[in-house]
């Protein structure tokens, strides 16, 4: 029988480092740009991010604390997700710095803001993929007892998608070619992907159909 290390998170994990975000990983990065009510640009990465619906496409990220991104999106009802890639990793990391709200993370990270087509939020020009989004839900998370936590889930419908045409081969998006980076556990661990690591599985229903 497999020997299992078991713990209850509320009582502590008893390990040198909390394994939770290393187990649930690597995770795609929610590199989110937003605009404050006063017109101040903001750009920040969130490691709790994913896509949650296909038609219409809905993506979301969770923020520990009521941060600038959440405040801006709650006011404007708009945001942009920018794909974080290996060539942009250092710039993405720079944009994670805790700075005053009046600091423009685009400038801090040496990135170029460009206008979106359907929302009033800047996109990262250097990023090869951008999703323009409109807020659908802003949810304060709670625990099993119903106690509200200092964490918010932001969900948005993707209303426009921009893809660098170099990533489309015969109309098919090449995931590995984009060099996306993924967040792992600990303070500094990231991963990339490559075509060499790809494998394919066909769903059982498709095999039978």
Mean pLDDT: 96
Tell me how many strands there are.
14
Biggest sheet: strands side by side, in what order? Answer: 3-2-6-9-10-5-4
Computed CA radius of gyration, to the nearest angstrom: 19 Å
Uncertain residue segments:
none
Q: SSE string, helix = H, strand = E?
A: HEEEEEHEHHEEEEEEEEH
Discrete helix count: 5
Overall geometry: globular
The biggest beta sheet is recorded as: 7 strands, antiparallel
Instruction: Output the structural class.
Output: mainly beta
Portion in helices: 10-25%
Could you give a quick summary of the protein structure above?
The chain is mainly beta and 209 residues long.
List the helices and strands and how they pair.
Layout: H1 20-23, E1 27-28, E2 30-35, E3 41-46, E4 49-53, E5 58-64, H2 68-76, E6 78-82, H3 89-94, H4 105-108, E7 113-115, E8 122-124, E9 129-142, E10 148-163, E11 168-169, E12 172-173, E13 182-183, E14 190-191, H5 204-208
Write a structural description:
The chain has 209 residues and is mainly β. The protein contains five helices and 14 strands. It has helices at residues 20-23, 68-76, 89-94, 105-108, 204-208, and strands at 27-28, 30-35, 41-46, 49-53, 58-64, 78-82, 113-115, 122-124, 129-142, 148-163, 168-169, 172-173, 182-183, 190-191. The longest helix has 9 residues, at 68-76. The model has no long low-confidence stretch (mean pLDDT 96).
């Amino acid at each position: 029988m497999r020997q299992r290390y078991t713990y209850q998170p509320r009582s502590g994990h008893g390990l040198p480092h909390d394994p939770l975000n290393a187990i649930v990983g690597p995770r795609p990065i929610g590199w989110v740009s937003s605009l404050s009510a006063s017109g101040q640009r903001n750009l920040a990465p969130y490691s709790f991010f994913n896509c949650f619906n296909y038609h219409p496409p809905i993506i979301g990220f969770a923020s520990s604390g009521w941060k600038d991104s959440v405040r801006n999106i709650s006011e404007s009802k708009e945001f942009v997700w920018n794909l974080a890639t290996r060539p942009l990793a250092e710039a993405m990391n720079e944009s994670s710095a805790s700075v005053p709200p009046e600091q423009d993370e685009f400038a801090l990270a040496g990135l170029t803001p460009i206008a979106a087509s359907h929302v009033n939020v800047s996109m990262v020009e250097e990023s090869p993929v951008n999703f323009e989004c409109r807020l659908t839900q802003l949810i304060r998370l709670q625990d099993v007892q119903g106690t509200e936590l200092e964490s918010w889930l932001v969900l948005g419908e993707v209303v426009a998608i921009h893809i660098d045409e170099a990533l489309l081969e015969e109309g098919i998006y090449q995931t590995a070619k984009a060099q996306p980076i993924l967040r792992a556990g600990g303070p500094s661990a990231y991963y990339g992907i490559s075509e060499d690591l790809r494998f394919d599985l066909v769903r059982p229903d498709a095999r039978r159909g």
